[in-house]
């Protein structure tokens, strides 16, 4: 059996919590995943307490109810942006109109209540693949993010804006106190320098000519004259490696 994943369920309704856990257990058994762990939370405050006190026990996916007494799921999502202990968030709600407020850095989607087992199966399969294939980049001390979530970086003096893959487009970024050249050296060959102010993740590039075409939101980034030839060589080499299945 494949090593299990860690699942969090945050819902103030005990019936919904237990039902979702049973769905997950059946799905994981069918997927032949063993040793999975569950953490059940009755409130957003309990999740925050977990993040402050349970070091090095990352929750791979948090099923998060939007409507809860006290702090709601949307507010909690915003507070979890910098937490390395919550990797992915999947919202649950009875109200479709609430969904648009739920998107963000760690959000992968939502489930309309009453939750169906087939929908749980879809998202756990998604997480299983991510957990198996994820590699991480260090933003700052203690802050890790899957490399595939990074679109590109933009220099801001001694700081860098790291633009993150977002369900609503490419406008979400994290400002970190690190220089672009340090990230370029640390993150490896899938990230290439195209300009003195830009570093891009090749897995999100759809084309490269006089500009770099990003897959997300049809974004175009400039290529500096002195970077152009090397950037093209790296782009072609990356494509060849991908075709061979090495990336």
Task: Describe the overall structure.
The mean pLDDT is 86. The protein has helices at 14-30, 44-53, 73-79, 117-133, 180-187, 228-243, and strands spanning 2-3, 6-10, 33-34, 37-41, 59-65, 86-93, 107-112, 136-140, 143-146, 150-156, 159-166, 169-176, 191-195, 198-201, 205-208, 211-214, 220-222. A hairpin with a 2-residue loop joins β10 (150-156) and β11 (159-166). It is of the alpha/beta class. The chain folds into two domains: 2-134, 3-Layer(aba) Sandwich (Rossmann fold); 137-243, OB fold (Dihydrolipoamide Acetyltransferase, E2P) (Beta Barrel), CATH 2.40.50. A five-stranded parallel sheet has the order 4-2-5-6-7, with helices on both faces. Strands 12-11-10-14-13 form a five-stranded antiparallel sheet, sandwiched between helices.
Summarize the structure.
The chain has helices spanning 14-30, 44-53, 73-79, 117-133, 180-187, 228-243, and strands spanning 2-3, 6-10, 33-34, 37-41, 59-65, 86-93, 107-112, 136-140, 143-146, 150-156, 159-166, 169-176, 191-195, 198-201, 205-208, 211-214, 220-222. The protein is of the alpha/beta class and 247 residues long. The strands form five sheets. A five-stranded parallel sheet has the order 4-2-5-6-7, with helices on both faces.
CATH class of the largest domain: Alpha Beta
CATH superfamily label of the largest domain? Response regulator
Number of discrete domains? 2
- Give the strand order of the largest sheet, numbering strands 1, 2, ... along the chain: 4-2-5-6-7
User: Strand content of the residues, in percent?
Assistant: 35-45%
Low-confidence stretches: none
Largest sheet: 5 strands, parallel
Q: What is the number of beta strands? A: 17
Helix content: 25-40%
Average pLDDT, rounded to a whole number, is 86
């Amino acid at each position: 059996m494949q090593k299990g994943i860690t699942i969090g369920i945050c819902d103030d309704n005990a019936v919904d919590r237990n039902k979702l856990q049973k769905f997950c257990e059946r799905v994981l058994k069918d997927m032949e995943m063993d040793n999975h762990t569950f953490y059940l939370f009755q409130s957003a405050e309990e999740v925050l307490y977990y993040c402050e006190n349970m070091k090095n026990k990352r929750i791979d996916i948090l099923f998060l109810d939007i409507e809860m007494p006290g702090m709601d799921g949307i507010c909690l999502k915003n507070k979890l942006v910098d937490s390395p202990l919550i990797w992915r968030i999947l919202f649950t709600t009875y109200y479709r109109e609430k969904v648009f407020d739920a998107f963000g850095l760690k959000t992968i989607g939502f489930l309309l209540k009453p939750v169906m087992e087939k929908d749980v199966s879809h998202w756990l399969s998604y997480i299983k693949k991510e957990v198996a294939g994820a590699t991480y980049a260090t933003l700052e001390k203690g802050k890790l993010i899957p490399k595939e979530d990074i679109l590109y970086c933009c220099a801001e003096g001694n700081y860098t804006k790291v633009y993150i893959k977002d369900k609503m487009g490419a406008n979400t970024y994290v400002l970190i106190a690190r220089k672009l050249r340090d990230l370029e050296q640390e993150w490896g060959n899938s990230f290439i320098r195209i300009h003195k102010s830009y570093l891009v993740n090749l897995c999100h590039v759809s084309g490269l000519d006089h500009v770099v075409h990003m897959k997300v939101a049809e974004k175009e980034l400039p290529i500096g004259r002195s970077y152009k030839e090397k950037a093209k060589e790296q782009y072609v080499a990356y494509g060849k490696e991908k075709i061979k299945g090495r990336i």
